[in-house]
TrEMBL record:
Keywords: Membrane, Transmembrane, Transmembrane helix. It is a multi-pass membrane protein. This is STAS domain-containing protein. It holds the Pfam family Sulfate_transp. The lineage of its organism: Eukaryota, Viridiplantae, Streptophyta, Embryophyta, Tracheophyta. It comes from the Eukaryota.
Length: 499
């Protein structure tokens, strides 16, 4: 938001106009987000796959942890960028600002927090140990710095914080003037980015706690929050990864924790701000690192590598994109990889050659079941996807290639001539007009080569479309069967009855 607004309006030369545009952009961001939820467009979050979230969690955890090095090392001049390389460069560029006192205090409490977390993980009954550890650390570190204040000038503290709430800003919303287009554009862009990150955070913790996230409700909640925020001196915001991690790590189970947190923040802003004067910044960094470090699930990444290489690629893109580029672009790259995977499965569906398991009426893939064997004079093919315009040409070419390969196998093994091709359509859940044309063309091509085409177990919706298009009329009584076994038995009996 700052970078987009600063291109046109200077926050130093025109601070009032800058504030008006920031609040107005926040309002439009919230309006855009809430509209997406109201229009039931929450399905877009389905493109954030589990693999994408595993990479996002790890990348965000690393980035958030690295950002805390400023407090842990006592660095004063630190980069505002979130990428890995600028953060690491800033850490070593300002080595002269490292404070050994801060490092000792920070890593001592970090060890304390990690130990308490480990104890609670090993013994669930002691969950309160890790839940109480952050607050205990804040109190102890504040008392420590207060008692040693004369000797601890090198330990950075929060310092003076003004009491009170932000003033209302509804009167600063501007819906006219030459800069309205800039406010709308900034609001939509930042709204998309914050919505993407917020929903990613929500789905991350939903996966950890095994519950569902309603995308429409998330969009409306974030949108209404930003619309309300624009009237109370807030700029566009979203679900915080680090603070959500702290909440999760403390053992919060319901939204009541948000009510308690809001009440605590309100009381703190109004009455308790002076108490935090001596709270060291380093302890806040230690608490955040402890919260996010457990979100790096390397075992899940290893499972993705073992099971699905494209899912692992999406995970890696999300991780390295968040780490080296930015959160929105990292998620965007991972979503592109996930969509590419979907397109790959749609345009290049799996087809199998099937055989009969001896002594049964069961037909399974020849490549997966050693017990399965070819049925003489039959080529049984299974299509494992809907048949659409995007894959109909590929399927036609693949089926014809299966037929050529089967004929070559028959010649090499001196088997009986191929007479019938059976398409097992159990997994074909849908078909469009291009798919119907594929079935027609395939039947004609095979008929010219004296092969019979048979369809086995087309599902209801597919059957209806084949019937409405009158494609079934050309198949006759021996062209449609409920199962592959029935087709083989009936057609074999028909051949035997013929002279």
């Amino acid at each position: 938001m700052g970078s987009m607004l600063s291109e046109t309006v200077s926050p130093h030369d025109e601070p009032i106009l800058y504030l008006k545009l920031a609040f107005t952009a926040t309002f439009f961001a919230g309006l855009f987000q809430a509209s997406l939820g109201f229009l039931r467009l929450g399905f877009v979050i389905d493109f954030l796959s589990k693999a994408t979230l595993v990479g996002f969690m790890a990348g965000a955890a690393v980035i958030v942890s690295l950002q805390q090095l400023k407090g842990l090392l006592g660095i004063v001049h630190f980069t505002t960028k979130m990428q890995f390389i600028p953060v690491i460069s800033s850490v070593f560029k300002h080595r002269n600002e490292w404070s050994w006192q801060t490092i000792v205090v920070g890593f001592s409490f970090l060890v304390f927090l990690l130990t308490s977390r480990h104890i609670s993980m090993k013994r669930p009954k002691l969950f309160w140990v890790s839940a109480a550890a952050p607050l205990t650390s804040v109190i102890l570190s504040t008392l420590l710095v207060f008692c040693l204040k004369l000797k601890s000038h090198k330990i950075s503290v929060i310092g003076y914080l003004p009491k009170g709430l932000n003033p209302p800003s509804a009167n600063m919303l501007s819906f006219s003037g030459p800069d309205l287009a800039l406010a709308i554009k900034t609001g939509i862009v930042t709204g998309i980015l914050s919505l993407t990150e917020g929903i990613a955070v929500g789905r991350t913790f939903a996966a950890l706690k095994n519950y569902q996230v309603d995308g429409n409700k998330e969009m409306m909640a974030i949108g209404l929050m930003n619309m309300a925020g624009s009237c109370s001196s807030c700029y566009v915001t979203t679900g915080s990864f680090s603070r959500s991690a702290v909440n999760y790590n403390a053992g919060a189970q319901t939204a009541v924790s948000n009510i308690i947190m809001s009440t605590a923040v309100l009381v703190t802003l109004l009455f308790l701000m002076p108490l935090f004067y001596y709270t060291p910044n380093v302890i806040l960094g230690a608490i955040i690192i402890t919260a996010v470090i457990g979100l790096i699930d390397y075992q899940a990444a290893y499972r993705l590598w073992k099971v699905d290489k494209l899912d692992f690629l999406a995970c890696a893109c999300s991780f390295f994109g968040v780490l080296f580029i930015s959160v929105p672009l990292g998620l965007g790259i991972a979503v592109v990889v996930s969509v590419f995977k979907i397109l790959l499965h749609v345009t290049r569906p799996n087809t199998l050659i099937m055989g009969n398991i001896r002594g049964t009426n069961t037909y399974q893939c020849l490549g997966r079941y050693k017990e399965a064997s070819r049925v003489p004079s039959f080529l049984i093919l299974a299509i494992e996807s809907p048949i659409y315009f995007a894959n109909s040409t590929y399927l036609q070419e693949r089926i014809l290639r299966w037929i050529r390969e089967e004929e070559d196998w028959i010649k090499a093994n001196n088997e009986g001539a191929l007479k019938c091709v059976i398409l097992d359509m159990t997994a074909v859940t849908a078909i469009d007009t291009s798919g119907i044309d594929l079935v027609r063309e395939l039947r004609k091509m095979l008929e010219k080569r004296s092969f019979q085409l048979v369809l086995a177990n087309p599902v209801g919706s597919v059957m209806e479309k084949l019937h409405q298009s009158k494609t079934l009329d050309s198949f006759g009584l021996n062209g449609i069967y409920l199962t592959v076994g029935e087709a083989v038995a009936d057609i074999s009996a028909l051949w035997k009855s013929q002279p």
